[in-house]
Amino acid sequence: MSDVPMREVVQRGLWFEELEEGVRYLHRPGRTVTEADNVLFTTLTMNPQPLHLDAAWSAGQPFGQPLVNSLFTLSTLVGQSVGQLTQGTLVANLGFGAVAFPHPVFVGDTLYGESVVESKRLSSSRPGEGVVTLAHTARNQHGVVVATASRTMLVWTREAGERASAAAEASDHGTESSG
Fold first, then answer.
1. Which long-range contacts (C-beta less than 8 Å, at least 24 apart) are formed by 45-51?
2. Which residues are 137's β-sheet partners?
3. Cα gap 66→59, rounded to integer Å
């Protein structure tokens, strides 16, 4: 064993400076949707739509089977981007726009997410933060686009984010030792 302390690397998203316009970030692994996912998400969000919950009723509808709740699809798409793009570097989501579901998702489909940085600029009112707009796309296992969304968010610049992380860590250690 060496007396040299081991270097530590904490998983994180990208700082404002690291996000590149026009780059497609592919989020892997994919996520195969189960019936439990669809039923749980739909009931947790108090959505009584039989198109998501009633297989017998859905069999008589245009798609012949239950559809996966579209907000589950959107949530999964955004969630897939977190580890690669915004984990620990996001200040806040500012909003979503232009959400579309051009093709249905069914139980058993696998969702693959991707994001493109459409624009970015430093915030004029919040020093140390930048405004970034992403174009998110979800495709199924056949490469068919099943969801698209625009998302605008605040992201830390590296210097401000590292400073905020260090302050939070110091605060956490102070709390631990005071108990």
1. 45/69, 45/71
2. 114, 148
3. 7
As beta bridge partners, residue 55 has none
Please give the Cα distance from 31 to 148 (Å, whole number): 16
**Tens-binned pLDDT, residue by residue, of the chain (179 aa):** 678 999 988 889 999 999 999 999 999 999 999 999 999 999 999 999 999 999 999 999 999 999 999 999 999 999 999 999 999 999 999 999 999 999 999 999 999 999 999 999 999 999 999 999 999 999 999 999 999 999 999 999 999 988 888 888 888 776 554 45
Query: Distance between CA atoms of 12 and 27, rounded to whole angstroms?
Result: 14
Token pair in block for residue 175: 């709390």
Helix (H, G, I), strand (E, B) or coil at 35: helix
Q: CA separation (Å) from 178 to 79, 171, 173, 174?
A: 36, 11, 9, 6
Quick one: CA dihedral 24, 30, 34, 40, positive or negative?
negative
Buried b (16+ CB within 10 A) or exposed e, 99-125: eebeebbbbebebbbbbebeebeeeee
